[in-house]
Amino acid sequence: MLATFYAKALDADFDEPILGDKWARDIVDRIDYDWSKTAVTARTSPAVTTRSAHFDMWARQFLAVHPEAIVPHLGCGLDSRYYRIDPGPGVEWYDVDYPDVADLRRQLFPPREHCHIIAASVTDPAWLADVPADRPTLMIAEGLTMYLTEAEGVALLRRIVDHAPSGELQFDAFSRLGIKAQWTNRVVTRAGAKLHWGIDGPDEILEAVPGLRLLAYVSPFDSPAFARVAPRYRVMARVMSAFKKLRYMAAYHRYAF
Ligand SMILES: C[S@@+](CC[C@H](N)C(=O)[O-])C[C@H]1O[C@@H](n2cnc3c(N)ncnc32)[C@H](O)[C@@H]1O
To answer: Looking at residue 197, which CATH number applies to its domain?
Structure first.
């Protein structure tokens, strides 16, 4: 969580930022922490900020069509998506993360009338009782699914679809190869985290979660946000994209229900 947050703060200092998250920039200085422990640097920050910029884009698209939506933002960490997007007063937003993260959010972000914080594990079915079930619902889960087991993740997606009348699920995932390769990910190993759930394509989700329709399945390299990274990364992406397994080692998923 601190690693992705720090990447956003570093990006905000660029002359031409990818995400331009001034909230991350301001808040990082208020946390007494040795940020070098995250292993994130300005050079590697686009791996995070292109993903966040992509999910901001998808969220804005949904909210433009559904200005009175409910938004469960799961595994939010310290992400300032609500403040970046600044949705209208018709949107009720729910940032959900573990209690210690929720406490930190309350200390660091100014309260907003329509932005709520739920302190819970997303695997606990009880938190959904606090979320209204009468409007189109956008579930955003950025950087979360890989920390869940497959059983936990599938149960979570099914619960959202059962709970809400209609809406979208927007999340990123690693493939099984991506999960196997987790030891090469310095940010993950430094955090002492363990990744579990690998998804090899949208068919697995469509089969596991009844009632979904695929809207998009996108490699990070094909995201419009990726066009803004330094040329050396675009060259690397072109090479990796020649191999389907590498192209979709991480992927952005979007489903309607
Ligand atoms: C890699 S961080 C991503 C944070 C943020 N979404 C971002 O993109 O910057 C993963 C987040 O998921 C949260 N998380 C992991 N498992 C969770 C669970 N079972 N319930 C709630 N939050 C969880 C972690 O606490 C952490 O904040």
So the answer is: 3.40.50.150
Query: Would you call 51 exposed, middle or buried from its count of C-beta atoms within 10 A (0-12, 13-18, 19+)?
Result: buried
Total domain count for the chain?
1
Cα(242) to centroid(ligand 1), Å: 31
Q: Which atom of ligand 1 is nearest to the CA of 79?
A: 9
Q: Give 94's strand partners.
A: 72, 116
Q: Which stretches of the chain drop beneath a pLDDT of 70?
A: none
What is the rounded distance in angstroms from the CA atom of residue 196 to the CA atom of residue 234?
Answer: 28
Q: How far is the CA of 144 from the centre of ligand 1 (A)?
A: 5
Instruction: Give 145 Cα–ligand 1 centroid separation in angstroms.
Output: 9
Starting at the edge strand found earlier in the chain, the sheet holding 167-174 runs 115-119, 92-97, 70-74, 137-141, 167-174, 250-256, 213-218
The boundaries of the domain holding residue 126 are: 2-256
The answer to whether 217 and 251 are in contact (CB under 8 A) is: yes
* Choice from 98, 109, 121, 124 to test ligand 1 binding pocket (greatest atom count within 8 A of CB): 98
Identify the three-state secondary structure at position 86. Answer: coil
Helices (H) and strands (E) in the chain, counts: 11, 7
Report the pLDDT value the prediction gives residue 187, as an integer from 0 to 100: 82
Ligand 1 centroid to Cα of residue 56, in Å, is 17
Q: Which atom of ligand 1 is nearest to the CA of 55?
A: 8
- Please, what's the largest Cα pairwise distance for the chain? 47
pLDDT value of position 185: 86
